Amino acid sequence: MDKLNVICVDDQREVLSAVLHDLEPLAEWLNIEDCESADEVLSLMDEIDAEGEHIAVLISDHVMPGKTGVELLTEVSGDRRYLHTKKVLLTGQATHTDTIQAINTAGINQYFEKPWQANSLVESITRLVTEYIFDAGLDYSQYHQHLDQQTVLDRLR
User: Fold this and answer.
1) Residue 94: predicted pLDDT
2) Beta-carbon count within 10 A of 53 CB
């Protein structure tokens, strides 16, 4: 079974803890990692890639010291190793311009404003991981019971 990773990054530990708590139901079949900075994420992504594992989804806050979430997601989107990785911006402080930049240059797949709804986050991440599995050409049958069934049906048509 291919190891699938979801990485969450936020410089505020309490927000990161809330995201991890909300994603806990997915830990049965996904490896959920957390980081507190863009540099930490990039280092972790290199390690995961070197181990031959998959980074299905990257969830990033926007306002962080050093590198913003949009800058991080844009950098990841330009790295061919993560061509199929789905990108989520989860923030309470992005401006309209930041959001447009995230869509246009970072190719984000989903945007959530803080505070988010836990069930919406879980549903979205499930759908995005399902899309990742198909986009990356992985064998979906080993994950079938966990996947977003509507996306599976749409992809098999």
Assistant:
1) 63
2) 14
Residues of the domain holding 68: 4-156
pTM for the whole structure: 0.95
Give the C-alpha separation, 86 to 18, whole Å.
20
What CA–CA distance (Å, rounded) separates 72 from 84?
16
User: What's the structural domain count of the chain?
Assistant: 1
Question: Are residues 88 and 68 in contact, defined by beta-carbon separation less than 8 angstroms?
Answer: no
Any bridge partners for residue 94, and if so which? none
Domain CATH for 44: 3.40.50.2300
pLDDT in tens, 54-67: 999 999 999 899 99
* Torsion angle in degrees (nearest 10) through CA of 145, 57, 151, 122: 70
The single-letter code of the amino acid at 82 is Y
pLDDT in tens, 114-136: 899 999 999 999 999 999 999 99
Dig out the tokens for 153 from the structure. Answer: 């049906």
